[in-house]
Amino acid sequence: MDILIISTGLIFGFFLLIKGADEMVQSAIQIAVKFSIPSSIIGAIFIGFGTSTPELFASAGAAFKGDLDLGVGNIIGSNIANALLVLSVLYIFLPKGFSKSLKLNKLSPIWMSIFTLVFAGYYVFFKNFSKTFGIALLVLSSYVIFSLIREESIEQEELVSSERKNLLIRASVALGATIYGSNLVVDNSVQLAEKFGISSLIVGSTLIAVGTSLPEVASSIAAARLSKPSLVFGNIFGSNLFNIGLVGGSIFIINPNNLSSDISISIYYLLISGTILLVLAFAKVSKNVIIGIILISIYVSYLLNLF
Question: How far is CA 128 from CA 62, 64, 240, 243, 263, in A?
């Protein structure tokens, strides 16, 4: 009975977290448009905050509760899931006969690679994550956001999908739902870990990481059916970049500490998945079930190596 209650709370928490985050970002964008805030600032909200909102609230919630392992596990697990699980869905669902080279902003892959290497290197050398490192990540993220905006001009009509009324009320309710949802996810995940005797790092790297990556999986299926793989790759590069920069920077400031678990295996898979992502991004993209199965197999091997 306890497992059923915990599972129900976890599922409801994910629902509030993901839907609330989406509504909050869309409402914030429309408020910015309504008050004629410059498009560069709107773009920063859309790219910098929007791609990583579920991970940010889930990881920050864990950090506030003193569970850094859960937050770090979510960051690494989400990035690996994006690069392997989300991409596998793309290659499987693309239409037959589709073959195209991607048109990507080259800054996104470069910065994602830099953040990934810095994150991995810092852990290898220091075995912990300090507040100073968190501040450095946030400062660098701010610079990257505006660098990307200068490179990628985003029109306001591309950001606003439909007119919303009562924006301030909607944004406030969405913020409350997101915060409450993140608390439900963290609390129930910790309880689930205690029930089965597994570490917070594993829960964060698997259950929470997959849960917060569900929007990317859904968008990957939609983009594949529309034959727009560039959207998927661009979203993954942006999401992975800011998961480390914004989310990582935030939780290391909130709770700088040593990790209770060794994350060497996770770092290894983070580097492998990032390399695979880069290689596939600069090759022609076409429907390829074999590549999809290989990516899923690597992801399954990552999950098995966690236990």
Answer: 17, 17, 20, 17, 10
> What is the per-residue DSSP string for 85-126?
IIHHHHHHHSPTT-EE-----THHHHHHHHHHHHHHHHHHHH
Phi-psi region of 197 (alpha: psi -120 to 50; beta: other; left: phi over 0): left
pTM, rounded to two decimals: 0.82
* Mean pLDDT for all residues in the chain: 79
The structure tokens 């991970």 sit at: 55
Burial degree of 128 (CB within 10 A; 0-12, 13-18, 19+): middle
Highest mean pLDDT (candidates 24-33, 137-146, 201-210): 137-146
Q: How far apart are CA 263 and CA 97, in angstroms?
A: 41
Give the CA distances from residue 220 to residues 87, 225, 288, in Å, rounded to whole numbers and listed in that order. Answer: 7, 9, 15
Q: Name the one residue in this structure whose structure tokens are 């959207």.
A: 231
Which helix or strand (DSSP H or E) is residue 258 part of? Answer: strand 257-258
Alpha helices in the chain (DSSP H): 2-34, 39-43, 53-64, 68-80, 87-93, 107-126, 131-151, 156-159, 167-196, 200-203, 209-212, 214-225, 229-242, 249-254, 264-281, 289-306
Q: What is the dihedral of CA 104, 105, 111, 113, to 10 degrees?
A: 20
Residue 268 domain boundaries: 2-306
CA distances from 120 to 52, 72, 101, 129 (A): 19, 12, 30, 11
Distance between CA 282 and CA 104 in Å, rounded? Answer: 9
Structurally, how many domains does the chain consist of?
A: 1
Tell me the CATH number at 86: 1.20.1420.30
Per-residue tokens: 53: 């909102």
* Residues 111, 115: Cα–Cα separation, whole Å: 6
* Candidate from 37-41, 180-184, 298-302 with smallest mean pLDDT: 37-41
